Amino acid sequence: MKRIAIDMDEVIADANLRFMDWYERDFGRRITLQEIHGKFFREVVSPEHREHTIKYLHTEGFFKDMAVIKDSQEVVYELSKKYEIFITTAAMEFPTSFIHKYEWLKQHFPFIPWTHMVFCGDKSIIHADYLIDDHSRHFKRFSGQGILFTSPHNVHEDWNPRVNSWKDVADLLL
Amino acid sequence: MKRIAIDMDEVIADANLRFMDWYERDFGRRITLQEIHGKFFREVVSPEHREHTIKYLHTEGFFKDMAVIKDSQEVVYELSKKYEIFITTAAMEFPTSFIHKYEWLKQHFPFIPWTHMVFCGDKSIIHADYLIDDHSRHFKRFSGQGILFTSPHNVHEDWNPRVNSWKDVADLLL
Q1: Secondary structure E strands in chain A
Q2: pLDDT for res A76
Q3: Where's the active site on this chain (chains A, B) (predicted)?
């Protein structure tokens, strides 16, 4: 049975929405998806807010109760019948995220057992046939096939295969 | 550069000593290393204490400030000059361990960056040339060479190569 490793943030968990919500809460302005097209969130905020915004990632609660990316639950569940699924997230950079990411996976992807959750940093340690991720840098030393999941920050990157949605993932792998 | 994945509990962190300390604290008797030879800790405690003892693993603080296994820091440091080192621990079974394991690694193995720490469950996800672990079950689907690190519970297991100490690891890999 082939194995698929799947990233969390911007692939199954909507981190950008959390950035938008917290930024609006703190500075009273809603950053739009159009604004962050082709960029990271931190690149479009006012320069005097940048440092504050980057700190969100290290703030208790940032990774708690994130919204689920559209169709990810249904498609990952269908994939799990044909492939071995691991969730592989670079959580090690953000220690405040550990327990929230774990609880989130248990709640929203209850069919993924704890044996198949991985918190890591450098994803070249992952032994899988496919890695679905929004950061192509993880593909460079990855031994399998990287599949780039479209996120505002990577729209101008040249990578094949690319998927724009979980429906695309279903078309590619199911 | 070849890559070595290294387990934590009973390989670099002394989990048995923690069991002994907590059991003595709770029941007034010191279990000895002789008693657990060839067994898991839970197998040698009084039957009426077994359930309580197993719960230690899920108790806040069990994984905090564990003693470091003899010579592990020095040898892993020397290994890190010749090999790429990842610490790969099946932490996912014990969510209360996450932050304590992370802090412990930062304190006792400061030369291992967060990019090279992995919390996982099924270690077949690990892509490495060697895995040093006290549980041979992790070697079954591991794609590299498993190296069994001697711990009381595995002394009667038949596995080659086996190492009895970090000096043995140095002899084998340096």
Answers
A1: 3-6, 84-89, 117-119, 130-133, 145-149, 162-163
A2: 98
A3: 7 (nucleophile), 9 (proton donor)
Kindly tell me the burial class for residue B174, based on how many C-beta atoms sit within 10 Å of its own C-beta (0-12, 13-18, 19 or more): exposed
ipTM score of complex: 0.96
Q: How far is A173 from chain B (nearest CA, A)?
A: 20
pLDDT digits (tens, 9 = 90+) for B134-170: 999 999 999 999 999 999 999 999 999 999 999 999 9
Domain extents in chain B: 3-14+66-173, 15-58
According to the model, what pLDDT value does residue B7 have? 98
| CATH class of the A3-14+66-173 domain in this structure | alpha beta
Q: Cβ of A91 and B116 within 8 Å?
A: no
Cross-chain residue pair B118–A118, CB shorter than 8 Å: yes
Residue B10 distance to chain A (closest CA, Å): 20
Query: Which of these, A111, A112, A71, A70, lies nearest to A89 by C-alpha position?
Result: A112
Which tokens sit at A140?
């460079």
Q: Which residues of B touch A128 (CB under 8 A)?
A: 125
B28 CB burial (10 A radius; 0-12, 13-18, 19+): exposed
Residues 67-126 of chain B with CB under 8 A from chain A are 86, 88, 91-93, 95, 98-99, 102, 113-122, 124-126
